[in-house]
Amino acid sequence: MPENHARKPEPRHDGASETPAVPASAGPGEGPEPAEPVHRRNRQTSKAGRSAGNPLLGWLKEIATVVVIAVVLSFLIKTFLFRAFFIPSESMVNTLDVDDRIFVNLLVPEPFALSRGDVVVFRDTKGWLPPAPPKTQGPFTWVQDGLTFVGLLPDNSEQHLVKRVIGLPGDHVVCCDAGGKLTINGTAVDEAYINSAEVPQVRNFDVTVPEGKVWVMGDNRNHSADSRAHMETDGGFVDLKDLEGKAAVIAWPLNRIKTLDNYPDVFKNVPAAR
């Protein structure tokens, strides 16, 4: 064999091992950094790949979570605390205008007590209103119904009424005294909430409110078919169990946002029912 032919190095047998290559950054005596376990690297790589590869999926999940939480909260609020309604008529002008949106406190009359002067929304169980026309079905009717059900849209049903409570159970309500004023339990009241644009027409009545019922009247007296107009139907009284609640806030339009007053000063001198 020629002398200049490369020879295969002979294996060492002195017990020494080959020294691995050390990175240039390693200092004297430093060994290589321990390798990261393969299973950990794979898991991190997989996570990074999912996040980087599907940003839209993550965004959609966040939006869906927010929507679900909003719907659940709205449903709970609508069921137990507040419910939205809109005003279709002029019977409560100037307190409420046509197409106002209001929020009704469902905690009145229970567990919180009802007061004279409260504006209330109640179900028409006695036929004060004409039958509602059949609902027209459109391509998005189910969406509107769903949003109304969870409380995100006001209830557009025509089978609710809104009036002001004048007489509580046991109250003796009379119209009118010699001065043309309404009296409750013998005390005349100055009804500051009545629409001042028109002089109310006098419609005489003399009633005592039965237990479990209330006497209601509209603020726009000449344009309100209230308890006075339905005395032939259960005396014109409204059952407490039919009350949805107390109208608390005008929420729309924006230039009319305000809380609704129950005018406690009007009734402060009225004695309790006997």
TrEMBL record:
InterPro entries cross-referenced by the UniProt entry: LexA/Signal_pep-like_sf, Pept_S26A_signal_pept_1, Pept_S26A_signal_pept_1_CS, Peptidase_S26
Transmembrane segments: 63-86
EC category: hydrolase
Family matches, as Pfam families: Peptidase_S26
Enzyme Commission identifier(s): 3.4.21.89
Biased composition (Basic and acidic residues): 1-16
SUPFAM superfamilies given in the database record: LexA/Signal peptidase
Family according to the record: Belongs to the peptidase S26 family.
Descriptive protein name: Signal peptidase I
Organism: Arthrobacter liuii
Lineage per the UniProt record: Bacteria, Bacillati, Actinomycetota, Actinomycetes, Micrococcales
